[in-house]
Amino acid sequence: MANQELIFGEEQFIVSKTDLNSKITYGNALFIEMSGYNEFELLGEAHNILRHQDMPSVVFKLLWSRIKDGKEIFAYVKNKTKNGDFYWVFAHVTPSFNSNREITHYHSVRRKPSDKALNIIKPLYTSLLQSERNSGINASEALLNQILKDKGQSYDEFILSL
Q: Are 85 and 5 a contacting pair, CB within 8 Å?
């Protein structure tokens, strides 16, 4: 039965690595288990194979902008599984560098988000997604920026305060 929420333990971590084009090059056992795919179905696929339709594009726009600039980012993400179930993660995504400080790949460590954080993130993402569907990603980005301005916080301050 699809569209069921999957939960993993607070002491567990989902880990994956991608190349510079977002193709999955590594996933730990929990990453593979939660996805519902087997390792061979995941390796070489674009990471957005797990992208849930409830995720606003603006979150990924921000994520990719940051990591391509060589910076880390924290983000709440709703992922979908092979059979249509879903699970929430609190992701820490970082670029990895070679000795010349060139980005070689991306690394993501995800843990279980708190209920408190999700109670704030879910309605926020619903608003951002609605804005995106009605008026495009720029409208969603403007809405996010206005919300952050109203809170007097940067994106990082807001996300890390949850």
A: yes
The pLDDT of residue 1 is above 70:
no
Could you tell me the domains of the chain?
Answer: 14-161 (3.30.450.20)
Q: Is 44 exposed, middle or buried (0-12, 13-18, 19+ CB in 10 A)?
A: exposed
The helix-helix angle for 115-135 and 57-68 (nearest 10°) equals 100
- The pTM of the full predicted model, rounded to 2 decimals, is 0.96
Residue 14: other Cβ atoms inside 10 A: 23
φ/ψ of residue 17, rounded to 5: -130, 145
Cα–Cα dist 25/121, whole Å: 29
| Inter-residue contact 16 to 27 (CB < 8 Å) | yes
Residue 5 tokens, joined? 């929420």
4 Rama class: left (phi>0) / alpha (psi -120 to 50) / beta: beta
